[in-house]
């Protein structure tokens, strides 16, 4: 049964990719860049997710709202844009942009995907989709975590901010960044509370010398 599910999943994915490529002239070339980013992001994450699957989780701080918010983020960042690119359902909300703006949207994902990869690599097995503590959880303060506490969220914000420049649509373009901003707002305070409970003074000192999404300006 598992193999049937995988084959069906792969076929659906292939049909979506083919459909978006097929309609690129209607949606503009930015939609092809959006597609590449949408494929690259889970591919970068997959090997790290596989590794953390073996973790023993000692504490979960997932609140009731978290699954709802994660679903909203999936809808906003992925489902809505795909439905729009395949059907043009939101074309009433299209806008025009000069070519240079689309080029900016195509360039932003390059450093953003690098940061997304590096933050997974630096977190190693401490990474998780929701708020969790694993056995032998360590506080990572090196690599891209040296000056910023949430570089993975920075990279995702940058990726989702590129979408309006690539998709030229008020709904499909902005649904990602808006839904992620809501998740971020709810989650970051919980995440930092969890890290403070776990690492105490070590985390306090880390907070004092770092910025949340961007490096703290030299003081
Ligand atoms: N907020 C971080 C990590 C996102 S993954 C970022 O944006 O880069 C979420 C998980 O990472 C949380 O469940 C927490 O257990 C873990 N985590 C977050 N910051 C960490 C750190 N500095 N060291 C170790 N684990 C961390």
Quick synopsis:
With 219 residues, this protein is mostly helical. 69% of the residues lie in helices and 3% in strands. It has a two-stranded antiparallel ribbon.
Please characterize this protein's 3D structure.
With 219 residues, the chain is mainly α. The protein contains nine helices and two strands, in the order αααβαααβααα. It has a two-stranded antiparallel ribbon. Helix 3 (30-52) runs parallel beside helix 6 (109-123), helix 4 packs antiparallel against helix 8 and helix 6 runs antiparallel to helix 7. The longest helix is centred in the C-terminal third of the chain and has 30 residues, at 170-199. The protein is globular. The model has no long low-confidence stretch (mean pLDDT 94). The chain binds S-adenosyl-L-homocysteine. The site of S-adenosyl-L-homocysteine has 17 residues, from helix 6, strand 2, helix 7 and helix 8.
Roughly what is the average pLDDT, rounded to an integer? 94
Sum up the overall morphology in one term. globular
- Number of helix segments? 9
Strand proportion:
under 5%
What radius of gyration results from the CA coordinates? Answer: 19 Å
Ligands, deduplicated: S-adenosyl-L-homocysteine
The oligomerization state is single chain
- The separation of the N and C termini measures 59 Å
* DSSP strand count: 2
The H/E string reads HHHEHHHEHHH
Helix content percent band? 55-70%
Category by helix and strand content: mainly alpha
Q: Give the strand order of the largest sheet, numbering strands 1, 2, ... along the chain.
A: 1-2
Profile the largest sheet.
2 strands, antiparallel
Q: Which residues sit in consecutive blocks of at least 5 with pLDDT less than 50?
A: none
């Amino acid at each position: 049964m598992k193999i049937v599910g995988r084959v069906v999943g792969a076929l659906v994915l292939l049909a979506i990719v083919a459909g978006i490529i097929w309609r690129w002239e209607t949606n503009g070339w930015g939609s092809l860049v959006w597609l590449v980013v949408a494929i690259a992001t889970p591919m970068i994450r997959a090997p790290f997710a596989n590794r953390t699957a073996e973790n023993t989780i000692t504490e979960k701080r997932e609140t009731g709202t978290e699954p709802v918010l994660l679903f909203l983020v999936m809808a906003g960042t992925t489902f809505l844009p795909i439905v729009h690119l395949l059907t043009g359902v939101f074309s009433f909300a299209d806008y025009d942009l000069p070519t240079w703006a689309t080029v900016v949207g195509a360039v932003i994902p390059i450093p953003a995907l690098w940061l997304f990869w590096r933050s997974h690599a630096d977190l190693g097995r401490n990474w998780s989709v929701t708020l969790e503590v694993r056995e032998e959880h360590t506080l990572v303060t090196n690599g891209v975590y040296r000056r910023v506490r949430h570089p993975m969220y920075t990279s995702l914000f940058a990726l989702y901010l590129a979408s309006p420049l690539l998709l030229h649509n008020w709904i499909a373009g902005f649904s990602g960044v808006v839904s992620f901003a809501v998740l971020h707002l709810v989650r970051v305070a919980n995440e930092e509370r969890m890290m403070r409970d776990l690492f105490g003074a070590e985390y306090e000192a880390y907070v004092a010398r770092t910025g949340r999404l961007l490096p703290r300006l030299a003081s």
